[in-house]
Design brief:
Layout (H helix, E strand, L loop, with lengths): L2 E4 L3 H8 L11 E4 L19 E7 L12 E6 L20 E7 L11 E4 L3 H9 L6 E6 L5 E7 H4 L1
Antiparallel strand pairs: 1-8, 2-3, 3-4, 5-6, 5-7, 7-8
């Protein structure tokens, strides 16, 4: 099975960059990157040192509901090329582990799938979860701060 890691929704990203509201109805905050710890959820790379980035609330779900977590994310303030690469994106190489959770097609956590996973095992665990037809996608979050990083889907679901 081929797995695709998806960037944040491009319409949401464009709206926030243009000054529109984040998931909490607020404009994004603008900051200058130190070059570390600023993973952009669009290009899936760290915002380069000295470049501006946005901090905003994101809820990567279609509607509010009990399992639709909202949390802080970073985006390059300027337009960047959304991630469309193969394999695990670069932003998932900077922490020893991440929290992975499988979700059903109705955007509910599939209980028993949540696991703190070493960085080097992300692709294997995502692939294992997506072999279950009850799991529509897997969200990858920070194991330390619970910040949304990316969503993984079966390749055919992303195309």
């Amino acid at each position: 099975m081929t797995v695709r890691f998806l960037p944040m929704d491009s319409e949401f990203v464009a709206r926030v960059r243009a000054g529109g509201p984040d998931a909490n109805g607020q404009p994004a905050e603008m900051h200058v990157s130190s070059g570390e710890g600023t993973p952009c959820r669009s290009c899936m790379r760290h915002v380069p040192k000295g470049k501006t980035y946005l901090i905003l609330a994101a809820r990567p779900f279609p509607a509010p509901q009990p399992y639709a977590e909202t949390g802080p994310v970073f985006l390059c303030a300027d337009a960047c090329e959304p991630w469309d690469g193969d394999g695990v994106p670069p932003i998932l190489e900077n922490s020893p582990d991440y929290l992975l959770k499988g979700y059903s097609a109705d955007h509910r956590i599939v209980y028993g799938t949540g696991q703190i996973t070493p960085s080097g095992d992300i692709l294997a665990y995502v692939s294992q979860l997506l072999e279950d037809a009850a799991i529509a996608y897997v969200d990858v979050r920070s194991a330390r701060n619970n910040c949304f990083q990316t969503r993984a889907v079966r390749s055919s679901a992303a195309e």
